[in-house]
């Protein structure tokens, strides 16, 4: 009999998953999985829980939580030789990765997607010794993801980030950075840089329009030195995906990116503090197999077609 392990964060989002747990377990059992659950107890616990699932040769791991929980599960799986398939039940306050995979927040529908069984091998990023599935980056503004209190996020969603971002704008200063990617070197004053694996980042659905989840490439976005007015304009362009032509933006696709800075710069990994730069970002192509809905498969297919024939955009 196949074995499934559900790793869930009981404190995630509005804390609704626990109430649904019995129903979810039952559905997996009916579908033919011997299923058990692990409630995470603290930061880092989901990393260990995922490693244990590997040791015990589970066929399927389900991560129920927000981006933080999924990131931890991926960090537990990424270095293992045997990596079980991964299902996602988005129950967090931030679910950027689930959104990128078109997985709905409704628990029943998210379980349907896993049990339907359609899966796809997707790219994972590594920077230094951390793994990420969505995005990593640096620059003062990226720090807002952990400056916004969790309660405010629950209440306001992405609006909480925009508000905090506006509050931080006047204090943003450029940093000298040397960014090397696939043979190109950039030595510039920058406001921030982002290394993105998907195209859904903090409510900016079109921030990295060419990011495909299994092509082995990151989308690298660098915002060069800009004044306050220019920065606001770039942000508003970015909301509708019209920022890439702006002269302050460098946009490239890369398999590996190396960043060093003169001043201290924090690294943000999937929305959490991830140590200090320098950093080497490596794309691990098609490294983990995720359950995904038809909608995502179609989205990826049309992105691939667009890449072959850019005039159809
Ligand atoms: N039992 C627990 N108590 C407190 N924190 C926990 C517990 N289990 C896991 N965590 C931590 O909670 C963090 C955030 O979890 P997650 O992303 O699933 O939820 P979220 O509601 O989206 O979080 P956030 O409020 O940060 O947006 C995880 O990175 C993990 O380190």
Question: Describe it for me?
Answer:
The chain has 313 residues and is α+β, with helices and mostly antiparallel strands. 32% of the residues lie in helices and 33% in strands. The chain has helices spanning 17-30, 45-55, 67-77, 96-100, 107-116, 144-147, 150-156, 158-168, 228-239, 294-308, and strands at 2-8, 33-39, 60-65, 85-90, 119-127, 130-132, 135-138, 175-181, 184-196, 218-224, 249-254, 256-261, 266-269, 272-276, 279-291. The strands form two sheets. Strands 5, 6, 7, 8, 9, 10, 11, 12, 13, 14 and 15 form an eleven-stranded antiparallel β-sheet that branches. A hairpin with a 2-residue loop joins strand 5 (119-127) and strand 6. Adenosine-5'-triphosphate is lined by residues 9-13, 40-43, 45, 65-69, 72, 92-94, 150, 153.
Bound molecules: adenosine-5'-triphosphate
Number of domains: 2
CATH architecture tag of the largest domain = Sandwich
Figure out the total of helices. 10
Report the CATH C-level class of the largest domain: Mainly Beta
Helix/strand class: alpha+beta
Radius of gyration: 19 Å
| Uncertain regions spanning at least 5 consecutive residues | none
Percent of residues in beta strands: 25-35%
Walk me through the topology.
Blueprint: E1 2-8, H1 17-30, E2 33-39, H2 45-55, E3 60-65, H3 67-77, E4 85-90, H4 96-100, H5 107-116, E5 119-127, E6 130-132, E7 135-138, H6 144-147, H7 150-156, H8 158-168, E8 175-181, E9 184-196, E10 218-224, H9 228-239, E11 249-254, E12 256-261, E13 266-269, E14 272-276, E15 279-291, H10 294-308
Parallel strand pairs: 1-2, 1-3, 3-4
Antiparallel strand pairs: 5-6, 5-15, 7-9, 7-13, 8-9, 8-12, 9-10, 10-11, 12-15, 13-14
Helix pairs in contact: 1-5, 2-3, 7-8
The protein binds adenosine-5'-triphosphate (ATP).
Adenosine-5'-triphosphate is lined by residues 9-13, 40-43, 45, 65-69, 72, 92-94, 150, 153.
